[in-house]
Amino acid sequence: MVYKIGVMPGDGVGPEVVSWGKSVLEATSRLGGIELEFVDAPVGGTTFLETGKVLPQESLQALNGCNAILKGPMGRPDIEAGIVERDGILALRQHFEQYVNLRPVKLFRGLESASPLKDSLLKHGVDFIIVRENSEGLYSRMGGLTAQSATDINLFTERGVRRILEFAFQLAAKRDKHLISVDKANVLSASLFWRRKFEAMAQNHPEIKTSSQLVDSFCLLVLQDPSPKKWDVLVTDNMFGDIIADEAAAIVGSLGMSPSANLNPGGISMYEPVHGSAPDIAGKGIVNPLATILSCALLMRHSLQRDDLGDKIENAVQKALDEGLRTTDIYVEDEGFTKVTTEELGAAVLKHLN
């Protein structure tokens, strides 16, 4: 079988990191006896300037025939804020019903000094997963804007909440059987609806240790103790997940170390780095390619069902870091590391894969 992988290079540093993602997928597929075909599908700010559309119909049709999508970051400073996000990123997630946003939060060995937390708080490591509802909430694109007021509807539905909770319970069952729901049920009706559904579903999963945490206190507690002993799988809504995932990225050293997956468990899923298009460093060869490379590990696990190949990618990343190679975002003075370019770090990962 030939697996078709849609490729959206995106804007800014997107083409630089996506090219390394493709190289890693090619190398890994050879190791695993998998045949891949890459399908180009231009989407984003540059595409908007060239065609007048963020997501051209031709690109969407090409993506519809793929098994998975590798997406680069999107956005340009010369385009009005919100256009690319609304007509590109959110439109893709909703078109493909990618209702799960998966954000692994893992501190790789050797990156302790890149974290803003004290070494004593990192002695047990960091390894938890954020399961973010990806299609509803405040990002449901319902509301309006006038000169006098603005409204965004925080939409939670029975179907939307149920399916994301079911996914989170299934994931927790495969890990340490500890699931924490993050909400704001003491203030928001939508969060109270969420918590009641969570508590009801927990009754059907007595093997899973469950609890609910208010989002503000969670943001404090995870900084005080980010260890695996305290956190395993977190499930939360769209807005809270967006915020706490970036906080978590800082804990593990950089957004450049943070992969993500937009999953439709029964359809086409999309994989991308968490960081943005960073136009200020585009073309300089200094962007960290590891978030994109680690997103390719997620692609292997969730779209191609090859956990073994996902492990190979993550192990190759760890070996490159063990060499002391660091791009600017994770480089720390006086630690004996070597500051390298995007190409040098990407090539090191490929070397260890091969």
What does this structure look like?
α9 (290-302) runs antiparallel to α10. The model has no long low-confidence stretch (mean pLDDT 96). This protein has helices at 14-32, 45-51, 57-64, 83-95, 158-174, 189-202, 215-224, 238-251, 290-302, 307-322, 342-353, and strands at 2-8, 35-40, 68-71, 100-106, 127-133, 143-145, 150-152, 178-183, 209-214, 233-236, 259-263, 269-273, 325-326, 338-339. It has 354 residues and is an alpha/beta fold. Helices cover 40% and strands 19% of the residues. Strands 2-1-3-12-11-4-5-10-8-9 form a 10-stranded mixed β-sheet, with helices on both faces. A two-stranded antiparallel sheet has the order 6-7. The chain folds into 2 domains: 1-102 and 259-354, Isopropylmalate Dehydrogenase (3-Layer(aba) Sandwich), CATH 3.40.718.10; 116-251, Isopropylmalate Dehydrogenase (3-Layer(aba) Sandwich), CATH 3.40.718.10. It contains 11 helices and 14 strands.
Please give a quick description of this structure.
With about 350 residues, the protein is α/β, with parallel strands linked by helices. It contains eleven helices and 14 strands. It folds into two domains: about 1-100 and about 260-354, Isopropylmalate Dehydrogenase (3-Layer(aba) Sandwich); about 115-250, Isopropylmalate Dehydrogenase (3-Layer(aba) Sandwich).
